[in-house]
Amino acid sequence: MAEPLPRRQRLVLAIAVLASFVAFLDGTIVNVALPAIDRELGGGLVTQQWTVDAYLITLGALILLAGSVSDAFGRILVLRIGLIGFGIASVAIAAAPDPLVLVIARAAQGAAGAFLVPSSLALITSTFRDAAQGRAIGIWTSLTTGAMVVGPLIGGLFVDLLSWRLAFLINVVPIAATLWLLRRLGEREQRRPDARIDWIGASLCTLGLGAAVFALIEQPNLGWGSPAIWAPLAAGLLMFGLFLVRQRTTRAPILPLDLFRARNFWTGNIATAFVYGALALNGFVVAVYLQQGAGLTATLAGLASLPITIMMILLSARFGTLAGRHGPRLFMTAGPLLMAAASLLLLTVSPEFSYWWQVLPSMLVFGLGLAVTVSPLTSAILGAIETERSGIASAVNNAVSRVAGLLVVATIGLIVGGRLDLDGFHRAAIATAVLMLAGGLVSWAGIRNPARMPQPEPTAR
């Protein structure tokens, strides 16, 4: 049986869990609320895509900046900024009178969310060591997936019984709890005297991603030949290229390219891109299709993914511990392959819809695969980088996962053929399986298990 954690470690873990919970809770609520948002504010699939992607654009772009700020100015300060900003943006979303205000508020929420997850994981990696770190990340993973339980349930219940707007205000509760725990922790972090912020790099990254994603989302409506599509796409790619060039030359990069010299770091991030792109595609398509295609209520659509969350809560910490003992390679390979198989099970969904026979088997296998994958993946990536750079390492990994989700959601119109009917749902399931398969193969080919420390010889007695 594992020994109980010291008081400071318990507080740090609770803070990390709650701060991340805020961001994850919002992500699961919004998918269930998308059809209701469309019914009230209008805009169709494009509004639904921008509701998701406005958040992911600022989150994915600024999370790198937040990681640098976290290492330079202190994780606790960055957490406080993120929590307060996230709460304010949540209120603005709940009050949005039209799609434009909603999208702007979602972008602001993503900017605040960028300060939450990297600082949370950096607190863990700077507080826990060796096997205890794997255990802590496993606990963090399993508990933060509680957001996957309450998120769809809250979103569905609020949509069906009250309003989708009120669902976003639930963030106030974990935000207040986390701020209170930060006061109890009672630690103050000192600013590094040589700390610098690369505002030019952050601007190039944000504008580059925003322009490219705008083109991908609007392309089904305007076509590739429209200057309103190819011009921002070209400008976005150019700005992102300039961002990468600047990271090689600036004294204070927000994306230190030397991190990618560590094999497990760059390989793990490639696997992350495939796996989290697939997760974003699956979460969006399943939540929307079950309501608009299969005719389920928002509450039932929210409950549909409950088996995934239960599997995560029950098994994530265990697989995190096993990966700490045996290395992450096998787990990072087997998990995505299981999720690829789970995605293909969704091809059984037919016009004669049955959740129990057509969707539930996929959810169970998907949940097992996700539990096998997430903790080992996180441990492998963060374990490849020295502790003092854990904030930026965590930020890079989170940026990769968010940008991957951002790009996949932006191309959903192309994946499903412009319409999320049964055929589009099946195409999305196949695309999810392909992405997961790629993630598993990359892990098998690239990840290396850390060398085991030699055990001391038993002393004669």
From TrEMBL:
Residues 12-451 form the Major facilitator superfamily (MFS) profile domain. One of its GO terms (cellular component) is plasma membrane. PROSITE patterns: MFS. CDD domains: MFS_MMR_MDR_like. Pfam families: MFS_1. Keywords: Membrane, Transmembrane, Transmembrane helix. The chain crosses the membrane at residues 12-34, 54-70, 77-97, 103-124, 136-158, 164-185, 197-217, 229-245, 266-290, 296-317, 329-349, 355-383, 395-416, 428-447. GO terms for molecular function: transmembrane transporter activity. SUPFAM superfamilies: MFS general substrate transporter. It is a multi-pass membrane protein. InterPro entries: MFS, MFS_dom, MFS_trans_sf. It is found in: Cell membrane. This is MFS transporter.
